[in-house]
Design a protein that fits this description.
Elements (H helix, E strand, L loop, with lengths): L2 H11 L3 H12 L20 E7 L2 E7 L16 E8 L7 E9 L6 E6 L7 E8 L2 E2 L3 E4 L11 E6 L10 H8 L5 E4 L32 H12 L2 H9 L1 E4 L29 H18 L17 E5 L3 E5 L31 H13 L4 E5 L23 H13 L3 E6 L5 E7 L6 E7 L9 E2 L5 H7 L3 E15 L3 E9 L9 E10 L2 E6 L1
Parallel strand pairs: 1-11, 9-10, 10-11, 13-14, 14-15, 15-17
Antiparallel strand pairs: 1-2, 2-5, 3-4, 3-6, 6-7, 6-8, 9-19, 12-13, 16-17, 16-19, 18-19, 19-20, 20-21, 21-22
Helix pairs in contact: 3-5, 4-6
The protein binds fe (iii) ion (FE) and calcium ion.
The site of calcium ion has 6 residues, from loops.
């Protein structure tokens, strides 16, 4: 048995065979390259396709022309190129529902974002592009249910923190094979901006994967990072299989940036520093490259260093996903962003994590919300204290007043709220409390990483101590993987999928734990 067949078998044991078959069907319909397979040299579609931000009547269909993805300009001539796009009801494209032309421009790295509209709700759709003498692989998207509908289920996977140098994206291959996902939420760290390892050197777990070049600062450097990551066949397969809602965290720009401030702003550890003005230019470059590579709507087109990344996706009356941006509008981390026992500045009553406008936007929606409220964001909301009382200032822990304002409407209206986050490279599950020792008001699922920090371990070091200091935590797991959440009217079932090693290819995806949250009763029970 070849490794691919064995891989599919392993996935099927986890009940994901239908998804794998759907992917196979997608490629079997067509001549030419298989879905997620290696592209030919000179193929302008080497970065694959992606869909995102599904609405009841459509979605974003994305691709970027780049026959030489790592070169400046992606190997394209500096001219505009016409592309044809097609959306079909079947994977063989015999029933075309919508089609059109779109111009790929050199100003935006020949990336295109087609906002497909006018489709029927709540069903799969297939899309592809043609142009520059080639045809793209086909992707599968799915429209959201009709606004008034109550679908039987809403199924979402979450993943993020995909350090290219730290291992293979086996978790994304697993996501690709999951059947019937309505959405994949990416909680950020799509790229890491730090200096690359020397090419050919062995990194985490002996893996030979290097970002080319030094720390990413310029537009071309950020573009190169995104292109390199996007050439990964497992990541491409996940994008081709399901619509994503992507967000960004810190590493799409710079470690631990905050609003207008670089991490290096006024920090004695970085004597060269960074001014607000210089960091605005860096953000503009990073956001442009991010936008160019993500299947997001034009509403998230950056204007220099400013970007609107928060948005709402509705899945009938069953679930509403509030995609939040906890980076762009926050105030600077208190206490010089030093972990440990908090300084007095932590308790500032005006602490901003979402910023006033985004906070009001969320508050208005929660004021007359129905169904499951999914807060899809980046850094953990739950408190995480070390046994010595230390906290990380970069999480909501550094912004407790903002956290209290976030939870207030959820608590007051007894909403069924589920918080999704990432950032800490560990899977965690636990409850959120409006007051210390008070009742749980919401449930949080922290995703681990796709690869960041390498293979990891079942349990992180000092796990007992950490669980003891954080009684609201029900689960801790430090392997790589992704999280799957199945929403039904009366309960959510969350499954942490885990991979024993990302330093080796084709490892099986296994279930690490399963939890159930009942509607009307925030909290976790083992499923
Ligand atoms: Fe990360
Ligand atoms: Ca992060």
């Amino acid at each position: 048995m070849d490794s691919r067949a064995r891989h599919i078998l392993d996935l099927s044991r986890r009940g994901a065979l239908r998804g794998a078959l759907a992917l196979a069907a997608l490629s079997a319909c067509r001549e030419g390259r298989a879905q997620g397979g290696p592209a030919m040299a000179g193929d302008p579609f080497r970065l694959g396709v992606a869909s995102g931000d599904p609405w009841p009547d459509g979605f974003v269909a994305w691709t970027r022309l780049a026959p030489a993805p790592l070169e400046p300009g992606g190997g394209m001539p500096a001219v505009a190129v016409d592309l044809t796009w097609e959306v079909a009801a079947d994977p063989c494209f015999t029933r075309i529902a919508r089609s059109g032309m779109v111009v790929a421009r050199p100003e935006s790295a020949h990336a295109v974002h087609v906002e497909v509209a006018g489709l029927d709700p709540g069903r799969p759709w297939f899309y592809r592009f043609r142009g520059f003498g080639a045809e793209s692989p086909a992707g599968q998207a799915r429209t959201a249910p009709a606004p008034g509908a109550t679908p039987a289920r809403f199924r979402i996977a979450t993943g993020g923190c995909q350090h290219y140098e730290h291992g293979f994206f086996t978790a994304w291959r697993g996501v690709a094979a999951e059947p019937d996902l309505d959405l994949v939420f990416h909680y950020g760290d799509y790229i890491y901006e730090g200096p690359g390892r020397p090419v050919g050197s062995r990194g985490w777990g002996g893996v030979v994967r290097s970002y080319a070049g030094g720390e990413a600062v310029t537009l071309d450097e950020y573009r190169q990072r995104h292109a390199q990551v996007r050439m990964d066949p497992d990541l491409q397969a996940a994008h081709a299989a399901h619509p994503f809602a992507v967000s960004f965290d810190d590493h799409e720009v710079e470690n631990n940036w905050a609003g207008p401030f670089s991490q290096r702003h006024g920090d004695p550890r970085y004597p060269a520093g960074a001014t607000v003005e210089s960091f605005a230019l860096r953000k503009a470059a990073a956001f442009q490259a991010w936008y160019e590579h993500m299947p997001v709507r034009a509403a998230s087109l950056p204007r220099g260093p400013a970007i609107t990344a928060h948005r709402r996706l509705r899945f009938g009356r069953l679930a509403t996903v509030h995609v939040l941006d906890t980076r762009s509008h926050r105030d600077d981390q208190p206490c010089d962003d030093r972990g440990g026992p908090p300084c007095a500045a932590v308790v500032r009553p005006d602490a901003q994590m979402l910023g006033a406008a985004q906070e009001a936007w969320l508050g208005r929606a929660l004021a007359d919300a129905e169904g499951w409220q999914v807060l899809a964001q980046q850094v953990p909301v739950m408190p995480h204290r070390s046994a010595a009382g230390g906290i990380s200032m970069d999480k909501w822990d550094g912004y407790p007043a903002a956290r209290a304002r976030l939870l207030a409407p959820i608590s007051a209206r007894r909403l069924d709220a589920v918080v999704l986050s990432g950032d800490v490279h560990q899977a965690r599950a636990g409850t959120l409390h409006a007051a210390p020792n008070g009742p749980a008001v919401a449930t949080e699922f922290v995703g681990t990483s796709i690869t960041s920090e390498g293979d990891g371990a079942e349990l992180p070091g000092r796990a007992e101590e950490f669980l003891g200091a954080n009684p609201h935590l029900a689960f801790l797991h430090a392997r790589r993987g992704y999280t799957l959440l199945d929403f039904a009217e009366h309960r959510v079932t969350a499954t942490f999928r885990s991979i024993a090693a990302v330093s080796r290819r084709d490892m099986p995806v296994q279930d690490a734990a399963r939890f159930v949250v009942e509607a009307g009763r925030p909290g976790l029970s083992r499923g």
